[in-house]
């Protein structure tokens, strides 16, 4: 009898069965049976019994393959026994099924290793979660795992697949890239001990002739890899897990290693539908709450003051921030001892006595009296060599015994696998958060890890786990503190981070058009309520072309709006605009943070780019004209240019809606078919359209 299981979500089904390689020795493992709309049956043909230069196991959509089981294509697991035997062949032992949680256990042909494959269907969201436990069963043998990935996802793709992913670098994260993969591999990842700026751990897969699209992501904040592999046989496989260049897992007798978790989802609505599926899951399963409590309107001092943090200046900024409607005032880098630039101070988390002789309390109290919450920036994982902490504990950083560690931004990274380092950081966090009335903490990390040194081959795993543990401690002991995760902009964003923070800072680039592009990519993988977005002064870091102030406010409204401008320089008109925009944003925040997001156009290619946020009662359309001519010297006369229309796609065709700016009533069908006219009322190059559903 073939053992098979189906896990049912609200609209999709994930099915697996035991696959027998049909070889002389026992060799069985799990293979995918079906993944798609609910109600489907087995969709994968049995691999033929004979095939030149490939075994049955090479042709089957195996859920997780080991070297030794699969011979022709890449495997997810490499095993090396200490007596020279390499690879593994598995035999089914038993399984446990509890509603939508399946765990299937195998033992290898030496009897020394157990492999448990976990598959959980989060039915409400149609998200499948998979991971692996590998256990060394022996009393006296060590086993090395030079590669131990989390999961593999298979797609029927007779003509290869279209793979969408997010790529970039510091200051230009999350640019959307697409490749058509017919044969061979596309590999993305990080070797940096952090998720990294280069790629987001997510792919979207579309196959010609297959309805809908699939999404795969990895919930992990250390080094990682994700490989899309297209085989001639019409199979595309995406495998993901911890990076094997920086990690070898050493299984001592009795030890079990559990991998990070990988997530998969299917949407009949194509690639954009995959983004909405991720958003639904992230809102409900990862966010602890979505409300002003943990997504407040923030003022952040970084762009206005950098390291020049003086109490009077900060208070003046806070006064204006309060006037325009900001809810939390956050002092960024530069408040602590010796921090007059990036060469000193990291590690010494006490206020600089030359500016704050009585500590931060007086300033914090004054900020709170203005009706604002008080917040601080911190970078716990790093240290400058020019700091008291490093002078006292030079051995607390990652370094090899024989080499000088590599400095980046004049800083080194603390070795979180050392218990004394973790204890020290717990002490630092507890002291700060109990001594000061802090209710907002921005946690930064401004460099990758380069010198893990000895003795561990698992530093990238232990650092990621150490970071997660400290962030969880914040959430458990200080639930009133909102946590913003940051790593030199978007260097550490992944589903695991979304589960332990409230918002994330997606990029250090706030130049308007570049930012729009970064935000477009960000929203393909992550939801608006976590996307911290501040209005800053022109020009941006890289993008130096001007836009209106309104353009930048509408852009910040696409996520969790904040302000980072030098408010002392603002004109009365700018303050008025800020107050109007922030009040409107606060009113629309529930729609912007919990609505379904529909994308219109491409900020790189199309002149008009829009985001449509849809709830049952209200639709908000944010629109930008990305062409440069609309402001500055070449100001276009809008009377001569017909206003554009946007055809709404998420709106209910059977409903009736009233556009707030002109009071007109439109049917949902007309808004979908003919579209809504953009009057450019809010700004010459950006607009906010609110459509209220008329009760039946
Ligand atoms: C990098 C962050 O992305 C910025 O927002 C700012 O906090 C600086 N670090 C401070 O050093």
Question: What does this molecule look like?
Answer:
The structure is a single chain. Helices cover 21% and strands 32% of the residues. Helix 7 packs parallel to helix 8. It is built from 13 helices and 37 strands. It has 696 residues and is of the alpha+beta class. The longest helix has 23 residues. The termini are far apart. It binds (2R,3S,4R,5S)-2-(hydroxymethyl)piperidine-3,4,5-triol.
Give a nutshell description of this structure:
Helices cover 21% and strands 32% of the residues.
Helices and strands, with pairings:
Layout lengths: L3 E5 L3 E9 L7 E10 L18 H4 L17 E5 L8 E9 L2 E8 L4 E10 L4 E10 L6 E14 L4 E7 L7 E7 L2 E7 L8 E9 L5 E7 L4 E8 L3 E8 L6 E3 L4 E3 L2 E7 L2 H17 L11 E3 L1 H4 L5 H14 L3 E4 L29 H9 L3 E6 L3 E2 L4 H5 L19 E2 L5 H17 L2 E6 L15 H19 L4 E4 L9 H4 L4 E2 L7 H14 L6 E4 L13 H9 L2 E4 L8 H23 L1 E5 L7 E7 L3 E8 L19 E2 L9 E4 L5 E3 H6 L2 E2 L8 E8 L3
Parallel strand pairs: 20-21, 20-29, 21-22, 22-25, 25-26, 26-27, 28-29
Antiparallel strand pairs: 1-2, 2-3, 4-9, 5-6, 6-7, 7-8, 8-18, 8-19, 9-16, 9-17, 10-11, 10-13, 12-15, 13-14, 14-19, 15-16, 23-24, 30-31, 31-32, 32-37, 33-36, 34-35, 34-37
Helix pairs in contact: 7-8, 11-12
The structure holds (2R,3S,4R,5S)-2-(hydroxymethyl)piperidine-3,4,5-triol.
Properties at a glance:
37 strands, alpha+beta, binds (2R,3S,4R,5S)-2-(hydroxymethyl)piperidine-3,4,5-triol, 10-stranded antiparallel beta sheet, 696 residues, 8-stranded parallel beta sheet, 32% strand
Average of pLDDT: 94
Secondary-structure-based class equals alpha+beta
Instruction: Name the ligand types.
Output: (2R,3S,4R,5S)-2-(hydroxymethyl)piperidine-3,4,5-triol
Task: Give me the Rg, rounded.
Answer: 27 Å
Residue ranges: pLDDT <50 for 5 or more in a row? none
Give the termini distance in whole angstroms.
Answer: 55 Å
Largest sheet: 10 strands, antiparallel
If helices are DSSP runs of H or I spanning 4 or more residues, what is the number of helices? 13
What's the shape? globular
Beta-strand content: 25-35%
